[in-house]
Design a protein that fits this description.
38% of the residues lie in helices and 16% in strands. The protein has 735 residues and is α/β, with parallel strands linked by helices. The strands form four sheets. The protein has a seven-stranded mixed sheet, with no helix packed on it. A seven-stranded parallel sheet has the order 12-13-11-14-15-10-16, with helices on both faces. It folds into four domains: 116 residues, no CATH class; 92 residues, OB fold (Dihydrolipoamide Acetyltransferase, E2P); 203 residues, P-loop containing nucleotide triphosphate hydrolases (Rossmann fold, 3-Layer(aba) Sandwich); 158 residues, P-loop containing nucleotide triphosphate hydrolases (Rossmann fold, 3-Layer(aba) Sandwich), CATH 3.40.50. The two termini are 50 Å apart. The longest helix has 25 residues.
């Protein structure tokens, strides 16, 4: 049996780097300089730019650029034993090669071994290939065969000339994630070189604790690398393809361990940063804003709201910055909990900021908080992109001077021209919709400040507290991995009076029945949302669909007032339509997904989502949460167009069967992966390349416990492990 070292030595000489394709690269023109060979520890500029597209910035990254799949070139298959669609390698002599013109121009070559004839067909080719495929030459050919008009054929196979008796490769051939202009042969050559250099330099040693690997029955890091880059003949291709092989499990564990080390270290680092102590000071009358606000609320807080409010209060009284995620299903009352936290900040002499991803949501927060807090003497600054210049400047000036104690707005809050006198608390709603840089920009505005009267004693590294809110419940596995650096509070009950929403699935062929249902609802004094189809590839098409729906419904529902709201409307126009809908002067509101969050009209009891099959589960659940806010029985109609794809059918089934946001979130994770929950947490870069949160839960838990033990013991392996897996990309993980 071949050894690992023999495999590694044999691979560059196996001939794979010399494989010819249907379109061989052109030779550089005379006088043009050939690309430089990769220097040790670096890459030639042209190659380096292409590798960077794959996330490979150095030779260590190249080692962890693992194969997608494998091809077995360690054996020759007789032509008469080829199976349609199954990768195989054959060897034989060329008996003819010619350019044929029917049914279309192509180069056809016949190769014969002792068992039969195989046709090689090239639809794109150079004239020089005809010379390469001369009669009598011996070729080794690999690809996926199929049954053609004349018999077995391969379309655009890989091939190279060999001599009879030339040795076969000693390992399976890895197929790596690639990019334009960077073929498999180049990637294999670079990878073999990088691994050989790292082995000589002793850089493939263990960075994970030996006891953890032993407990999980994992091979060493070096053994796992060799298995994945140079799998020996006889290796289980199924286990490699399914990533269940022990070598894959080792890589998944190491990746999860790096993530956990980074997030938990970020969590611990915050314990040495300073933060304002927001203990809630009484005013001159001995009556705090917090107490007056709580007393003025027209409703009682639920037990869940009271519990999470106390958790947040404990954090705010700490001299270290809070980073807490407040989860709660749509309508659970997150905003009032955030308002309680803002009151504590204002009582302590600090400012608070509320940031929301859309102007409609931010304006909803502004109206609600102004209604609650302005009568209590709180000055609120409203900042949004659509405001006139003088209004923006007035708001910014009030914040800079400290005259305004509360700021509410969109991305405008973290613009360079906006500064705070003493920002103590940043509340970020629908936090997964903001990029890391945006959240950092807002909290950075509170760095190094102190409450009024204590400027001389300010701590240099003071950070504001941060409360992030999400109506998308985070499944447990996601919270364990991507939010290990946060404390999490959950509002797990709805306020009394919220009626369950009934969900109905109706084919769009029954649209007339839906129109009649709208007439009945409006006749009973209730109101209706009609959400237009999602057209992700074109905002213009989406707007046109909304306008056409508005015109069609206006014609079909004569006698009812139909309104239209979409993202392109000016702020004052949008506000006017929403005000008319809230006052029941508009009975049917046609809208795009701008109403997904933040819209609260208790009298609206019916929602129609057109082309529901185009929406994700999270969006559908958010939209459904716009109804069921009053006493009337509420219905959400998901209007779909048949036939449904498998994923769309699964999504609609979940929506029909449950209104529990945590169940919806768990199913969404299974269907779509973690991207929708995480947003642009790393500015688009994937945090996990190999591990699967659902399939690898045992590794997630083991990595979490192992990271905690390593950091507690100040294990020097932690730094080495992070350098190997994250390099310089650790900063964003702790945000």
């Amino acid at each position: 049996m071949a050894t690992r070292s023999a495999v590694a030595k044999a691979l560059p000489k196996s001939g794979r780097a010399a494989v010819k394709t249907a379109a061989p690269a052109k030779r550089p023109a005379a006088g043009k300089k050939k690309p430089e060979a990769p220097a040790p520890g670096d890459f030639a500029p042209v190659v380096g730019a292409k590798l960077a597209k794959l996330g490979i910035h150095n030779r260590a990254d190249l080692i962890l650029h693992l194969p997608l799949r494998y091809e077995d070139e360690t054996r020759i298959t007789p032509i008469d034993q080829l199976a349609d669609g199954v990768f195989a390698q054959v060897e034989g002599g060329v008996i003819s090669a010619e350019i044929m013109y029917r049914p279309k121009r192509s180069l056809v070559c016949q190769v014969r071994d002792g068992s039969g004839v195989l046709y090689l067909r090239f639809l794109n080719f150079y004239g020089s290939q005809l010379k390469q495929l001369q009669e009598g030459r011996r070729l080794r050919v690999s690809g996926e065969p199929r049954t053609g008009f004349f018999g077995a054929e391969m379309i655009h196979p890989r091939y190279r000339e060999v001599q009879e008796g030339d040795p076969l490769p000693a390992s399976l051939t890895p197929v790596y994630p690639a990019t334009a202009g960077l073929g498999q042969a180049t990637l294999r050559k670079l990878t073999v070189s990088a691994i050989a250099d790292a082995r000589r330099a002793g850089q493939l040693g263990e960075t994970a604790p030996a006891e953890a690997s032993a407990r999980l029955h994992l091979p060493s890091f070096e053994q796992a690398l060799d298995t994945l880059h140079f799998p020996l003949p006889g290796a289980s291709t199924a286990a490699l393809a399914e990533r269940s092989d022990p070598a894959w499990r080792r890589m998944k564990f190491d990746e999860l361990l790096a993530q956990q080390l980074s997030l938990q270290r970020a969590y611990r680092a915050r314990r040495v940063q300073g933060a304002p102590v927001l203990a809630g000071v009484a005013d001159a009358k001995g009556d705090s804003l917090l107490a007056r606000f709580t007393h003025a609320l027209p409703f009682a807080l639920t037990k869940a709201q009271q519990r999470v409010a106390l958790e947040i209060a404990d954090d705010l009284q700490s001299p270290h910055p809070m980073r807490r995620l407040l989860q709660g299903d749509v309508g659970s009352g997150k905003t009032v909990v955030a308002a309680l936290a803002a009151c504590r900040a204002i009582d302590a002499g600090y400012q608070a900021a509320f940031m929301a991803p859309t102007e409609i949501l931010a304006e909803q927060h502004f109206r609600k908080l102004a209604q609650w807090l302005e009568p209590l003497g709180v000055r609120i600054a409203w900042l949004a992109g659509s405001l006139k210049k003088r209004d923006k400047e007035a708001g910014a000036a009030a914040l800079a001077s400290g005259e305004a104690q509360l700021a509410i707005g969109t991305h405008a809050l973290f613009q360079d021209k906006v500064s705070f006198a003493r920002l103590g608390l940043a509340v970020i709603d629908e936090q997964h919709r903001f990029g890391v840089g945006q959240r950092l920009a807002l909290t950075a505005k509170g760095a190094g400040v102190a409450p009024s009267g204590k400027g001389a004693d300010a701590i240099a590294d003071v950070r504001p507290h941060q409360l992030m809110m999400s109506a998308t419940p985070i499944p447990r596995t996601l919270a364990m991995t991507y939010y290990a650096d946060l404390d999490v509070s959950v509002i797990d009950e709805l306020p009394p009076g919220r009626t369950p929403v009934v969900t109905k699935l109706i084919a769009d062929t029954r649209r007339d029945e839906v129109i009649e249902r709208i007439r009945d609802a409006c006749g009973a004094g209730l109101q209706v949302y009609w959400v237009c189809p999602l057209i992700e590839e074109s905002e213009t098409l989406q707007l046109r669909a909304a306008e056409e729906t508005y015109e069609r419904l206006s014609e079909m529902l004569q006698g009812l007032n139909v309104g239209l709201v979409h993202g392109r409307l000016k702020s004052d126009e949008k506000a006017e339509v929403m005000a008319q809908f809230a006052a029941n002067r508009v009975q049917v509101l046609v809208a795009t997904t701008v109403i997904e969050v933040g819209v609260d009209v208790p009298n609206a009891s019916l929602m129609v989502v057109e082309h529901a099959e185009r929406f994700g589960l999270s969006q559908l659940h958010q939209l459904r949460g716009r109804v069921g806010r009053g006493a009337a029985e509420s219905v959400c109609i998901l209007l779909y167009q048949a036939p449904l794809g498998e994923t769309a059918r699964a999504r609609l089934k979940v929506m029909f069967e449950t209104t529990d946001g945590f169940v919806v979130a768990r199913e969404d994770l299974a269907l779509r992966g973690p991207g929708e929950f995480l947003g642009r947490r790393q500015s688009g870069a994937a945090m996990l390349r190999f591990a699967d949160l659902e399939l690898d839960l045992d590794l997630v838990e083991a990595a979490r416990d192992c990271a905690q033990a390593m950091l507690t013991a100040n294990d020097p392996l932690a730094d080495a492990h992070l350098r190997r897996w994250l390099g310089g990309r650790e900063a964003f993980l702790g945000v």
